[in-house]
Amino acid sequence: AEYELGEHPDFMYKEMREQPDAVDRCLRGRLDHRFSSARLDGVGLSPQDYQRIRRVKLLGCGSAYYAGQLGAQLVEELARIPADAEPASEFRYRNPVVDPDTLYVAISQSGETLDTLAAVQELKRKGGHVIGVVNAVGSTIARECGHGIFLHAGPEVSVAATKSFTTMAVALAMLALDLGRVRDLSITEGRRLVTGLSELPHQIAQVLASEDDIAAVARKYADARHMFFVGRVRGWPAAREGAQKLKEISYVHAEAYQASELKHGPLALINPEMPTVVLVPDDELLAKNTATIEEIKARGGPVIAVTDAELPPGLATDVIRVPKAHDALAPITLSVPLQLFAYHLARALGRDVDRPRNLAKSVTVE
Ligand code: G6P
After folding, report:
1. Interval between CA 241 and ligand 1 midpoint (Å)
2. Is 132 exposed, middle or buried (0-12, 13-18, 19+ CB in 10 A)?
């Protein structure tokens, strides 16, 4: 039944709707209420091993890379370990320095992406310690890594990643929490995170319940030929993933930019024909993001704000509101409306969302 559409128009739609259940399965049995942490037995590392980690490097392709970028932010924020993400293909071809105190994390839905697999093999050859964050049990990358976290998202058929992206982010948040709790993340902070994670399925369901409003906004912008997606810090990986979703299924040119970098070039492109989706997490950078919206509006650019904050009325042209999650987890809830936005915009243009031209679900060639 998992490969059947049932009453759904296509797999992307079905898989978006499955996200509350997928996230719930990803979390199941892994939240440790006693120690306010996560229980990730498959990772195969002891607290002592965790303490020796000096860096975390996350590798993947496409949406898995953007999920990795989100994961890197979570690791730095919760565990205060320097972390960054890189496309697996770049990593494998640039003769990377492989460091024994770095934890490498290979992220892949299919577990078969050639570039990610080759990065894992290169790492192992050079003595790197690599774990997998993989959906497909028994896949090549999962077997090659030997240890890691399975997403339990269920099969994903649509070329555009949806439930795999959200569950990757959730799995990486648990890893960050677990790493944090053997370092200096307090039990109270850990508890807030555990609560925040357990609230995600319901919050994602609430976002899905507001689909009609999101679809109306998407249809309103279906004539746009280009769009910007901007965010800063927590909003940035979500902006990249949102732009990617829109390009791959609607063929509308979408470009993601750091909000702070707009004034160093892209602002020149803002006009009434160039809508900008602005990610506005309700965090300490809220005022900065409001200023970004004002900058764009002052140049005549329509703004679609995607936010968990209460914005002053009239600030943005359109607002897509999501429930307030734990600050560190907001990028996850903010990503879901971007999927629905891309989906409904693509449908308004008559695109075949499950079979975008020139793309494959998993890229097992060079
Ligand atoms: C392809 C798909 C993307 C996916 C990427 C990585 O490009 O079209 O949706 O994000 O591969 O796939 P993986 O299976 O390794 O997560």
Report:
1. 12
2. buried
Reference 43, options 174, 153, 169, 168; nearest CA is 174
| ipTM confidence | 0.96
Q: Report the separation in Å between the CA atom of 354 and the middle of ligand 1, taken as the mean of its atom positions.
A: 13
Query: Is 236 within 8 Å of 258 (Cβ atoms)?
Result: yes
Residue 271 has pLDDT above 80, yes or no: yes
311: which DSSP letter?
P
Average pLDDT for 196-218: 98
**Residue with CA closest to ligand 1 atom 15:** 108
Helical pair 330-348 and 211-220, crossing angle rounded to 10 deg: 50
What pTM value is reported for the model?
Answer: 0.97
Q: How far apart are CA 124 and CA 191, in angstroms?
A: 35
- Residue 243 in contact with ligand 1 by CB distance below 6 A: no
Percent of the chain residues topping a pLDDT of 70: 99
